[in-house]
Specification:
Elements: E1 2-3, H1 7-17, E2 27-28, H2 33-38, E3 56-62, E4 65-72, H3 89-97
Parallel strand pairs: 1-2
Antiparallel strand pairs: 3-4
Length: about 100
């Protein structure tokens, strides 16, 4: 799992979620470089003080190659809060099966 945040935030999130030592790896993208390269930088300004937000998306990657990207978010709901279904586990599992 990655987020546009620094490693200290990601470590805190890992501890909070209890994923230490599991198959889940937390990674930070503090400058948003990876997010920008994927075209997943959110253009909506969002709440004041939040800069460089990432769109809500889920990605299936095999051997370093992107096989599928599911993106939630529409005009007016850039974060995908109203309908995150394209980025939830059932949608990603369907994409993996395809």
């Amino acid at each position: 799992m990655y987020c546009v945040n620094d490693s200290a935030v990601m470590q805190g999130w890992e501890e909070d979620q209890g994923t230490e030592g599991s198959f889940i790896t937390m990674m930070g993208d503090p400058a948003g470089e990876f997010t920008k390269a994927l075209g997943m930088m959110m253009n909506d300004p969002g709440p004041p003080g939040l800069l460089g937000r990432c769109k809500r998306f889920a990605m299936h990657v095999v051997d370093g190659k992107i096989k599928h990207i599911g993106e939630s978010g529409t005009e007016g709901d850039w974060a995908g809060d109203d309908d995150p279904s394209a980025t939830l586990a059932p949608a990603l599992l369907e994409a993996v099966k395809a």
